């Protein structure tokens, strides 16, 4: 392709509103055009790369036994109501009405539609297993679109769905998809790590994310360099060391702590370490109920874990008025002596019965010392909270905490999610009636999995992971073109003839080449070659033509080589 005829306009300056490397470079390299917030048009250079990514995805999915389909972007709202997600997805759903006033959804994902298809198609265990996939545009009304293609409102995704007659079949499908994903990302030149993840609005029990580590990532990751444990911070667990325990249980004592509304202040005044204090963090869920979380003073609450435990769609910090309404006092709160009605109590498993704690006394300027949670957590009527409390992990893991597997310190990094695989189980088949007849002729719910890859995210992530101060450094498999051919001093007939001849030769041989035949200076052409970042740059210039050579430079190399003109095609041949 001749650059003089190609829709590609590069920028010298970085756009002010682009905050990540991939966004900046895609705009500067003329790859995308922003139509609206979170909505982009893919220009020829980006589209070529996306087509290569899609081809790799299709090849690996087909090799894993999946079958490609094409599902509608418009979904009847009734399908989402049937699954229970119409309300659960909240404002992320784009909703439209047809001329008859019937409500439809622009698909952010396709679990409902594919389950509807399968429940009308599968009758027997003989029809299973089945894996179906598509590559399609998705729509999500993101509240804060940002980072270019990394967080958009319209994007391309490959979504696949497996259907099996039992959990063992799901395990096989899940592993097949996991391996296909590893192959895809390897072929696309992405370095990924696989982390345990929260299933979020998709649902199901187990899930893993494929993450590209990058400073621009919006996900916080924790991993153990020793044993390999890795998880998204939303899911991550850690080894919680128990502070000093005691066999003695002194009676609970109220002590004055004037002006001490923080854990640090209380611990300093009473001479106890923060890990021997209990802090209260209070939320209000979408029903207006109070979620009262108790956690050790040296730890932080993981709100995702709290949401999952109570199946809450939303949590917000409780107001002072809401806290006081149940008998607690902001800054000095604990479950001791508060009203039980409308309160959901969550106790982090870092709080153990054998430790002598300090906690709030629900009175301004006072705390309790010598608190044992199994003895002293009583409501206003003196009933113990122990049997009605959620007692599990509600803490947020952080770098330096002990790995849950080997105990060594966890390390932190940022990551971009490029793939996510889920074991859905029977979440959708139960709610939507997708069943099959087993070998005994009994109806059973189909066991499902789902598997998503952000195709446009792969494009952005590849640039985020592969660039330097000059521009993009494309992984060869997904580069829009293989060669950037520079012609210098093309106003000289002999030089243009040589450059045109080399372009024609490469084109006929099937080498993908972008020929910079513009009337621009050498500096502009070389800068654009580095910015666009194709794997190989060839330069035809008066000096080289006289010597019978072509300048050959790999994008990642510090220096260029001079190659005999007749050997250029040989050097570019994959087998060479």
Write up this protein.
The longest helix has 21 residues, at 167-187. Helix 1 (21-28) packs across helix 12 (455-465), helix 2 packs antiparallel against helix 6 and helix 2 packs across helix 12. The chain is globular. It is 26% helix and 28% strand. It folds into 3 domains: 3-9 and 17-71 and 109-236 and 412-464, 2-Layer Sandwich (BirA Bifunctional Protein, domain 2); 253-392, YbaK/aminoacyl-tRNA synthetase-associated domain (YbaK protein, Alpha-Beta Complex), CATH 3.90.960.10; 481-572, Rossmann fold. The protein starts with 20 loop residues before the first helix and ends with a helix. Strands 3, 7, 8, 9, 10, 11, 12, 21 and 24 form a 9-stranded mixed beta sheet that branches. It has 16 helices and 29 strands. The chain has 576 residues and is α+β, with helices and mostly antiparallel strands.
Short description:
This protein has 576 residues and is an alpha+beta fold. Helix content is 26%, strand content 28%. The chain folds into 3 domains: 3-9 and 17-71 and 109-236 and 412-464, Bira Bifunctional Protein, Domain 2 (BirA Bifunctional Protein, domain 2, 2-Layer Sandwich), CATH 3.30.930; 253-392, YbaK protein, CATH 3.90.960; 481-572, 3-Layer(aba) Sandwich (Rossmann fold), CATH 3.40.50.800.
């Amino acid at each position: 392709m001749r650059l003089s005829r190609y829709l590609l306009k590069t920028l010298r300056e970085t756009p002010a509103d682009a905050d990540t490397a991939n966004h900046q470079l895609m705009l500067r390299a003329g790859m995308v055009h922003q139509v609206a917030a979170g909505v982009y048009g893919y220009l020829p250079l980006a589209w070529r790369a996306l087509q290569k990514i899609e081809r790799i995805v299709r090849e690996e999915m087909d090799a894993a036994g999946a079958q490609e389909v094409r599902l509608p972007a418009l979904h009847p709202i009734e399908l989402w109501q049937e699954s229970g997600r119409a309300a659960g997805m909240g404002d992320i759903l784009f909703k439209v009405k047809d001329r008859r006033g019937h409500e439809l959804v622009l698909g952010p994902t396709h679990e409902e539609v594919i389950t509807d298809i399968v429940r009308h198609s599968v009758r027997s265990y003989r029809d299973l297993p089945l894996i179906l996939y598509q590559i399609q545009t998705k729509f999500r009304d993101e509240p804060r679109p940002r980072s270019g293609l990394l967080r958009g409102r319209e994007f391309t995704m490959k979504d696949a769905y497996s259907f099996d007659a039992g959990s063992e079949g799901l395990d096989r499908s899940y592993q097949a998809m996991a391996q296909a994903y590893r192959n895809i990302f390897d072929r696309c030149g992405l370095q990924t790590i696989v982390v345990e993840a929260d299933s979020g609005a998709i649902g199901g029990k187990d899930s893993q994310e494929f993450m590209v580590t990058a400073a621009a990532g919006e996900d916080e990751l924790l991993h153990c360099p020793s044993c390999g444990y890795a998880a998204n911070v939303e899911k991550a667990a850690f080894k919680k060391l128990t502070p000093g325990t005691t066999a003695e249980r002194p009676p609970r004592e109220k002590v004055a702590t004037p002006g001490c509304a923080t854990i640090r202040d209380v611990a300093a005044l009473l001479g106890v370490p923060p890990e021997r204090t209990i802090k209260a963090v209070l939320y209000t869920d979408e029903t207006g109920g109070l979620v009262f979380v108790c956690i050790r003073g040296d730890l932080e609450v993981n709100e995702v874990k709290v949401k999952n435990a109570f199946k809450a769609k939303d949590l917000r910090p409780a107001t002072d008025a809401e806290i006081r309404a149940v008998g607690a006092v902001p800054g000095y709160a604990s479950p001791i002596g508060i009203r039980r009605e409308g309160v959901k109590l969550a106790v982090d498993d870092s709080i153990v019965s054998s430790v002598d704690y300090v906690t709030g006394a629900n009175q301004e300027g006072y705390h309790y010392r010598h608190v044992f949670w199994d003895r002293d957590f009583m409501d206003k009527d003196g009933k113990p909270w122990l049997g009605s409390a959620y007692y599990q992990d509600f803490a947020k893991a952080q770098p330096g905490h002990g790995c849950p597997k080997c105990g060594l310190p966890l390390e932190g990094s940022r990551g971009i999610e490029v793939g996510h695989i889920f074991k859905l189980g029977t979440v959708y088949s139960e709610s939507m009636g997708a069943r099959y007849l087993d070998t005994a002729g009994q109806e059973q719910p189909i066991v499902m999995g789902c598997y998503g890859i952000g195709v446009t995210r792969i494009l952005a992530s590849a640039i985020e992971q592969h660039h330097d101060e000059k521009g993009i450094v494309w992984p060869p498999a997904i580069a829009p073109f293989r060669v950037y051919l520079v012609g210098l001093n093309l106003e000289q007939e002999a030089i243009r003839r040589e450059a045109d001849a080399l372009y024609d030769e490469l084109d006929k041989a099937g080498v993908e080449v972008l020929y910079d035949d513009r009337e621009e200076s050498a500096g502009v052409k070389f800068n654009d070659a580095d910015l666009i970042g194709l794997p190989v740059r060839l330069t035809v210039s008066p000096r080289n033509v006289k010597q019978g050579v072509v300048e050959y430079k790999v994008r990642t190399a510090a220096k260029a080589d001079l190659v005999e003109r007749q050997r250029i095609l040989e050097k570019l041949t994959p087998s060479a």
